[in-house]
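for the writeup, i need someone to sanity check this before i put it in the appendix. the sequnce is what the collaborator sent (i think, or maybe the updated version? ugh). structure was predicted straight from it, no edits. if anything looks off just tell me and ill rerun, i have time this weekend
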Amino acid sequence: MPPEGIRLERDTMGELAVPAHAYYGVQTARAIENFPISGLRFPRAFIRALGLIKRAAATVNASLGLLDNTLAEAIKQAATEVIDGKLDAEFPVDIFQTGSGTSTNMNANEVISNRATELLGGARGSKLVHPNDHVNLGQSSNDVIPTAIHIAASETIERRLIPALTRLHQALDRKAREFDGVVKIGRTHLQDATPVRLGQEFGGYARQIELGITRMRRAQEMLSEVALGGTAVGTGLNTHPEFSSRVLALLSQETGCSFKEAANHFEAQSAQDSLVEASGELRTLAVSLMKIANDIRWLGSGPRCGLGEIVLPETQPGSSIMPGKVNPVIAESVVMVCAQVIGNDVTVTIGGQAGNFELNVMLPVMAYNLLQSIELLAAASNNFAEKCIEGITANEQRCRDSIEQSLAMCTALAPEIGYEAAAAIAKEAYHTGKTVREVARERKILPEQRLNELLDPWRMTEPGGPVGSAGG
């Protein structure tokens, strides 16, 4: 008899002790012993995707006459508990495991097998419902794991990331309209440039996020073609010819995302170019967000001795030593998220080249990094909108004051007086501390009315006017 609190289970390598209360089985127990690496686990979205696949597989296999209806119903009920997160604690295998994710596929098979067995009145470990013969029927780890990654990524983009980006886009777009009447100095090379409207700057940010949403849709399209049906090496050995298409039809209906069988199973399993591409789209989004968050930090710098052209919401004290200091902490958190996502993309890229002959062998770490990037960008985007962008106000007086002091105002004079003459005015203004307007007036280069027309800041924020060199 085994000691109290454990049960003995057997696989092709022999017997091993398994906690008596566990729904997982002997192959999961071996993986726990073999991979005591990081403590990192597959995220909820991935476990849900595995459950969705196993439930749909049982439904289809029963409909094809390949699986007894009683067993299928028990498997479907157990898989539903996996989908709903009721059995998450039963998935203890480390991310740094077998490169195909076989340990985690068998983890799912064993959990569903034992829970289904229990539902039918059997004992855990008895294999009344068999993990391989019944739960994994028509499948292989080599097609299930990459399919689960695609499903989890696409569904998380749909349910979490796109709604968060939509909120952020709407917040930025509202600010673009709200600030459209606020004229400020533009900046290129971090130096003063010709005037822009604060709303124009925010309109640029809004457009970046709008394009980010388009990129996420493009990523979903790349993820829609999945490996399921290829089994071990892409040949489809041991699966029904209709299995994949039927399962994917169910999965598309249940998730609201589109999935279809790979046009070429050898490509779908030996390479993971679609994951690399999706990660690249996420990296591009991270770069966009980092640019926006850093601009927001600079525009709100101060409050008295920086740029200070916008006022950020106050969220928490900023210093343990300087009383009253408030920092742009929400924007800073976004920047750090973006750095993490860019780093994750490097891992996914390296993982993508690990397609050795008929199988990629870095699937778990690719899954972890890709899904983390989606979740981080979703959370950061939503938080950025809620706790920063939506509460920003314009410091209109600071914006007005900075314009007249800019030496770049001379750009508007160049088409009428020439580049060299305008440059001379700018240099004199710089050395004397006077404004461009004051120097131009003293030199009487143009009639007062015309000078005022050319140096009107609002006019400079629109196309048109005299044609000439615009500087750079």
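The mean pLDDT is 95. The radius of gyration is 30 Å.
thx in advance!!
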